[in-house]
Amino acid sequence: MKLDYRNNPSSFQHFWSNTGQPYLFLLPALIVFAAVVLSPVVMSLILSFYKFTGFDANVFKNFTGFDNFRILFNDKYFWIAFRNNFYFLAANITVQIAFALFLAIVIYFGRFRNSVLIRTIIFFPAVLAPVSISLAWRRILQQDGLINAILNIDFSWLSSIQLAIWIVISVSIWQWTGYNLVIFYAALQSVDRTILEASDVDGANWWGKIFRIVIPVLVPAIILNVILNLIGSFRVFDIVYVLTRGGPVHQSEVLTTLMYYYSFSANGPNKMGVGSSIAFVMFFIMIIFGILRIRLIKSEGV
Amino acid sequence: MAFFGINLKKGHIEQEYGIHWKKDKGFYIFSRILIIISIIIILVPILYIFSLSLRTKETIYQDFMFLIPKEFTLQNYADAAEYAKIHLNVSFLEMFRNSIIATSVSIVFALIIGALASFSFSNYKFRGKEFTFTAIIVSFVIPAQVLLIPLFFILRKIGVINTYFAIIIPYIGFLVPIAVLILRSFFEQIPKEIKESAKIDGASDFRIFAQIVLPLSKPAIATCIILLFLETWNEFIFALVFLQNPKLQTIPVAIAQIAGGKYIVPIGTYSAAIMITIIPVLIIFIIFQRWFISGMTLGALKG
Fold first, then answer.
1. Which of A187, A191, A208, B46 is the most exposed place for a label (fewest CB within 10 A)?
2. pTM for this prediction
3. Do A220 and B4 touch (CB under 8 A)?
4. B150 and B209 in one domain?
5. Contact B146 A118 (CB under 8 A)
6. How many domains are there within chain B?
7. Residue B127, number of CB atoms within 10 A of its CB
8. Within-domain flag for B65
9. In this complex, do A37 and B281 lie within 8 Å of one another by their Cβ atoms?
10. Could you tell me which CATH number the domain at A68-299 has?
11. Which domain holds residue B48?
12. CB-based contact (8 Å) between A32 and chain B?
């Protein structure tokens, strides 16, 4: 007869099969999490109180207290970068979501024979590398590029102090609207069609249908898209880096590009401590958003 | 399965509710015009760059507005390859090799580690389960750039800067949470009875994982691969900072140098270089487009 270790609580195998195994399966992920996420985050927070450069072997040598933050908060370009991230955020959660929502509803109501193809095309930029897209738009926005040819003007879009950040934001909206759109479209599938058909019988106009029947169903998807854009607008780096490098004169800088400038850029000041304090600020903002997001996920009962 | 009130039942057929031409001509025409304009706005920039990449030097400024060039040439693509070799010190073949190695190794490791963790989350009740899971979700929300400076020193300390591991290690860290988010809820839907009957037959938990759970999860794994592929294939800042050796650079980093570089790049060459980064993704997208959209929607809903 085979001895069943499950009934023998003192055996080692019993431990594995009952208590140890879940942790064993989890172990690789925990190691990765500790090594690549947790310890760097902690180290990053600590490093923002030290003064060091990329060439230092020991980065924990010069403790400087709040000096990095003092340098940062006295840097007017930090506040421009900070402001630009909020411009990004504002444009993403208003213009981009409005476009996506509007297009999703139009496609849904429009009875398009090739609705899948339409959505696929509008979604396509979301799968391309932001670098490729930015390079393409860089060419289009050059003085001898397509935009100026269409408008028949001679304007240097990317070196405009006022416009540069908005150009970057527009390119970002161009890339990600389709992504928000497919999320809205997926959510539209749970609109109750019988109610819509009943309202047709009652002769409801379509503004009424959209605002009374469709939008209420989409509220969770709107919240989701807002949260995605909250996170996305503080992560943005590639588009700014390729389109403007934060220029002209740091006017289109965002927190990530400013961090790169302070820490790694060949013509930057090589003050990695200040770079770390920017990371600290970003981390702080994202934790607030992150808590918000998890709260929402939990309240949705997922 | 419902996320944020969004139904994602398997095999869910999209029903069409819509406005009839006869009932509302105004909306019908308006919707067609709007969609056509949207498609033009999306496609023209890409087609324009494609068109530039096919033009000869003489015709590059001619017919600026027209997408179809009068004379076709593939010379620009040869020039772009030449330019990369001379000025960027990396051939197209090397760029693609680097991207493929970094992407595939990261995905394989992240999938294995993520699947094991997801199995643990879905199969057992244990202390600290939800806390660990929440910690993993939070790490998904932190902007990766926060980790850039500390990881630079950590990876330099262990001597992997300027090797593939310099980006593979961080990538695995970023990908595991995505894999766990997708796979956990899928694993949880696998009926308990199947696992229990295997257990009665004497299968170990690892065997249940490898021979029952994994084969049943092929669709979720496919979705996962698509998401992880996009994350790594398009990743920029880590590859930019951690791989200083041009021979090891991935496609986005190598190509990004044609903008704002020291040398003036002819328009045709520049456009051809962009198209070389777009075309492979386009082909993969066309083949797997259904997976892309459902995968990215799912990734967003769960992430």
1. A208
2. 0.87
3. yes
4. yes
5. no
6. 2
7. 10
8. yes
9. no
10. 1.10.3720.10
11. 19-73
12. yes
Residues B132, B180: one domain? yes
- The nearest alpha carbon in chain B to A186 belongs to B6
Do residues B51 and B67 lie in contact, with contact meaning Cβ atoms separated by under 8 Å? Answer: yes
Q: How far is CA A50 from the centre of its chain?
A: 29
- Residue-wise pLDDT tens for chain B (303 aa)? 334 334 444 444 455 566 666 667 788 888 899 999 999 999 999 999 998 888 887 777 766 666 677 778 888 898 888 888 888 888 889 999 999 999 999 999 999 999 999 999 988 888 888 888 888 877 777 888 889 999 999 999 898 988 999 999 999 999 999 899 888 888 888 888 888 888 888 888 888 888 888 988 888 898 889 889 988 999 999 999 999 888 999 999 999 888 766 667 888 889 999 999 999 999 988 888 777 777 777 766 654
**Domain membership flag for residue B79:** no
Segment A264-295, tens digit of pLDDT? 888 888 889 999 999 999 998 888 877 776 67
Cα(A172)–Cα(A186) distance, integer angstroms? 22
Contact A184, A104 (CB under 8 A): yes
Nearest to A53 by CA among A277, A266, A281, A263: A263
Of B5, B117, B137, the CB nearest to A294: B137
CB–CB of B236 and A130 under 8 A? yes
d(CA B59, CA B79): 16
ipTM of the complex: 0.86
DSSP class of residue A51? E
Of B210, B209, B150, B147, the closest CA to residue B173 belongs to: B147
Amino acid identity at A264: F
Are B99 and B243 found together in one domain?
A: yes
Of the partner residues B2, B20, B31, the one whose CB lies closest to the CB of residue A106? B31
Same domain, residue pair B105 and B43: no
CA atoms within 13 A on the CB side of B87: 20
Same domain, B54 and B90: no
Is B184 in the same domain as B108? yes
Whether residues B97 and B42 share a domain: the answer is no
Cis peptide before A248 (omega within 30 of 0): yes
User: B52, B73, B94: which is the final residue of a domain?
Assistant: B73
B150 with B282, same domain: the answer is yes
Tokens standing for B45? 């920039």
Q: From the centroid of its chain, how far is CA A191? A: 28
Is residue B12 one of the residues assigned to a domain? no
Q: With contacts defined as CB-CB under 8 Å, which chain A residues touch B152?
A: 54
Domain assignment present for residue B233? The answer is yes
A51 phi and psi angles, rounded to 5 deg: -105, 120
A121·B43 Cβ contact <8 A:
yes
